[in-house]
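cron nightly-structures :: item 1 of 1
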Amino acid sequence: MPTGASLTTAWLLALAAGSIQPALAQQAPTLPQDAPTDANGEAPSTGGDIVVTGSRIRSPNATSVSAITTVSGQEILNRGATRIEDLINTLPQAYADQGGGNRGGTVGASGTATINLRNLGNQRTLVLIDGRRLMQGDPARSAAQAADINNVPAALVDRIDVVTGGASAVYGSDAIAGVVNFVLKKNFDGFQADAQAGLFTHDNRNPIASVARAAGQPVISGQTIDGGQQSVSLTFGKNFDEGRGNVTAFASYRQIAGVGTADRDFSTCNLAAGAAGYSCSLSSTTYPAQFQLTNPTTGAVRGSYTLDSTTGNTLRTYRTSDGFSNGPTYDAQAPDKRINADIFAHYKISDAVEVYGQFMFMRDEADIRISPTGVFTVAEKINCNNPYLSASQVNLICTSVGLTPAQSATVNVSFRDALAGSRHDYTNHTSYQGVLGLRGDFASNWHYDAYAQYGRTEYDSTTINEISLAKFANALQAVNVGGQIVCASAATNPSCVPINLFAVNGITDSARAYVENTVHRTGYTQEFIASGSVSGNLGFGSPLASHPIGVAIGAEYRDEKLNFQPDSFYSSKDVAGNSGGEFPAMGSFNVKEVYGEVRVPLIEARPFFHSLSAEGGIRYSNYSTAGDTIAFKAGAEWSPVRDLRLRGSFQRAVRAPNLTELFGPQRGTTASITDPCEGTAPKATAAQCALSGVSAVQYRNIAPAAGQQSGARVGGNPDLKPEVAYTKSFGAELTPRFLRGVTIGVDYFDIKVKKLISTVAPSIILNQCIATGVACDLIVRNPATGSLVNSGYVVTTYVNAGYLQTSGIDFTATASQQLGDIFGGHLGRVDLNFGGTRTEKYAVQVLPGAPVYRCDGYFGTTCGQPIPHWRHRLLVNWTSPQGGFSVGGTWRYIGPTKNDKSSSATYLTGTYFAYDARLGATSYFDLTAAVNVGKRFTLRGGVNNLLDRDPPLTASAASTGQTSNGAFFAGMYDSLGRYVFAGVTARF
């Protein structure tokens, strides 16, 4: 743990409480006195019972055996957050995931925003609104199928409860890493308007770009002001019939301007690490075509060439510096527009019957910019009598290997459509969710709640500036007919326009327009839930306790559907930027569940037993696809004295496979695999190769795969079984009476996910089979030759693989101190709030029996985004004596990490350069202020990343998952500079 987080000042730790409301609190949150609500959005009963997130039992002194982190809705305003994911990602338990800062690409931006607790993946974090499940957000990408928090009406959020650790016994599948519950404001009466605007300011002075600037390359420098974000929301609510009913309507509009990677010096260049340090080069911005010439008899590559700019129509040897620089062709912040419209209502007919309902609508339109499309190493036929070829090109490509003018050469062509500019994926999500329910008290100590919920997310994607591979192949076949150059297929394909790749600036606008395509994808996800529960107390309990036993029982039915429809260009693999193709996916499943909880106060108000209670819960689920599962929890709390509470729990959580994991279309593709059983002198023994399906006759007779490109099968797997996770947590909470208002918490967590649903690299599957005999059923060899090509392949669909385990310690402290009590006079109040996480372990086993490797303290090509051992945030606020003015600051700390290739663990060790060995510790400082103007207006403003710190850079981030943004990790680190914002709230 770093010195800054070692808590050397014990009183500082004891001071922590949020200025307007505690932003991180491990105790049950304090409820507003004028309009109390519980975690399910219900008004407490006349007895004052409440419900905390993580349980359905109503209790007058409800606490939780699991640590609860609470962020107030006010902090959304204080941070100037127009994207809730930006706020969530500041929590030390949360890791970056889908969001507005993701770069476009195959694993990049999706136009959604998701939550990833403990870095276990967004699919293992359950998102709730008022205790009810939020539907999935995207049918196209498995990385974005989790709930899209763009649906959350930010201005209506009262608080955000975060419970880490398994909660499947209470809420069902997906709650392996934990639950995030957005609790909305209730009984709103009046009219409120809120407007906010912000922008980024950044001084481009990163030394990494100095060499490129000195070489005259167009790298931005100096001050930039960009990335404007504006939002406006209107809320209207009315209590009626003497408070028995309420109707609240909400509407908001948000617009975010794009920021290109070319607008930041550190993201403009392609970054590479070398012995002398990082190099930053823009390479070529036009990328002339590359031609990889082959021997017509053997197929062996005999050289790679590109156009010689000094002659314009001859070829020279291709150099690395000829490569295209895609660094400045993306957006570091995608342009985005979003509309939310919601209505909430409830009416209490009697104590026994209250009807409630809600309707939520969201429309998000994102412009996801992707680098210019290209054709990469595609075998094409080039006719030797092509009129665009110069004499020297004809000789090099054809004549030198004995091809006549009537023949064609097979050439591996690479071409980047740079002049067309970036592709734009215009992605739209339209979501709506409706709830209708009844709740009430049917006895003095019993409460019921029954509701039906329907949600649907519709998806539409249109990508421009793509290339049709079929049209490109047609355009390359040019002939001279009567002095006019036309396509060889002109007679049957009159729209074809020949393309000239063989001369500098030879491509005409009409040729480029012919090969370019606009491609489409559509789809939807749909969810229906019918749920009913009863909670109350049994009227009796332990003779040593004054409170009775509390229980909750319920049943739930859930049905989910997926439909994804790419157009014919995708499904026929005719999209250059996605040459593996995309295919229709349809499927559904349903689950029937029953559950129960019990909370037993054992001892109360006795010596050494201020309170002792135990609780348990169980949920049985029957999935139409995955079969039966059981989740359970058991926990206890013990307060030997009022100042100290000890807690612990053990939970078995489950996650059923999601729709994409089940029904994603299976298809064949190629993968880079080195087969240790190929060739005349195999690296593996005959016995080892026999495990992978090689016969005695085939051994030593398997021809090496061309370019080491073997077959692989990817997609969903309808035979998947649910994941099972075991969660242990133990903690202590101290509220010392001699430090009034102080709460200090320490909690240990351990989460182990078994039968992990994931994909496994084909090379790992093959090597693991040969070494240990594990996963050999995933290898299908060509029955005739024993090779992994043609009808041979490695199955890399989703499978139930090895395990994932993480453990650590959460530290929290909150307190509030009136300065006048210390110094005298009226000096206002100081509130501090601290939350930190020490990650002790993050272990991965790819396949059962395979070696285990650790990613805690590492980042890189295998471990992905950084998993530092220590992260924290500390909030400090001062509020004036009259409460009309407040000013505060936040210190966010992210600990150092090392390149995963520096680890000695199997699958991690590798070659790296010393300059790329480490990401240093990073601290960010934020300031905020708010002032009341009269009784109706509040003005606020602030600065995040006050010192304008650049993110730490690495050459090992480029292909590490959806949060990598070229040379840095978006979301984990502030990547656009200093954010300045101002806002106003008006109440009437």
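cron nightly-structures :: done
The chain has two domains: 3-271+329-371+425-465+520-666+715-759+797-987, 288-322+374-416+468-507.
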